[in-house]
Amino acid sequence: MEFKNVPAIVTGGASGLGEGAARALAAAGCKVAIFDLQKELGEKVAADIGGIFVHCDVSSAESAEAAIATACEAHGLCGIAVNCAGIGPAARILGRNGVMPLENFSKVIQINLIGTFNILRLAAADMAQRAPNADGERGVIINTASVAAYEGQIGQAAYSASKGGVVGLTIQSARELAREGIRVNTIAPGLFMTPMMAGMPQEVQDSLAATLPFPQRLGKPEEFGMMVDQMVRNPILNGETIRLDSALRMAPR
Ligand code: NAD
Prior knowledge:
By secondary structure, the protein is an alpha/beta fold. The chain is built from nine helices and nine strands. It is 45% helix and 16% strand. Helix 1 packs across helix 9 and helix 3 (61-75) runs parallel beside helix 4 (102-127). The site of nicotinamide-adenine-dinucleotide has 30 residues, from helix 1, helix 4 and helix 7.
């Protein structure tokens, strides 16, 4: 895919990994629309990268439909969509205060998995109307899972299940959308230093840090942005989930 002037949507782009993706896409020449709940932060990042901020709750069909229409009016039909919006509240199945309420589980699934599908389906509808490039490509969708999808993490039953769902959704939608010239891939990050990580209880942070085989620094949002850039450029990647795992990765010092 070319980047120059391609309309791109980044959910969760006001903060953390989404911000890293938004900055990378803007640097490559995309017209970036940040979809997020956090207006002040989102507007600040958008102003910084010459993009726009669109208030959007990815878990709501109405909100996502309105946001996609706003972005399309401002920039044109979406050619690149990066799903980064997500939450990761910690709660044990059998916690100190009793059994986990079902609502806790549903909320995480609603944002992380259903929110990802919500943007994916609407972005794909935009992409299918775009003219194909010389390789027959019309668009690229990148989702965000987590190594938790493969390994689990303490107090992250809902989170791990939601991210496992994102991996499955990626395989299925890549197969289904290939004929439309749309590629779908996922990045499964390990430990990255973002506000989500900083907000986790110390107990969870410690257990995550203990999974690193060597005292290495956590990933940076701009490194996530580098992987987004490569996934968009590389036409042979489709239906893949690439682990961007701080425990395995060799990072520039
Ligand atoms: P973050 O909290 O810094 O960013 C998440 C963003 O999503 C925030 O700006 C938030 O406002 C937005 N958001 C939350 N709910 C939303 C909703 N309903 N609609 C629209 N926007 C919403 O967190 P982050 O660490 O940058 O996480 C980004 C993604 O990466 C998440 O999906 C997370 O699960 C995943 N991830 C992060 C790590 C890590 O180590 N930080 C590891 C694995 C996976």
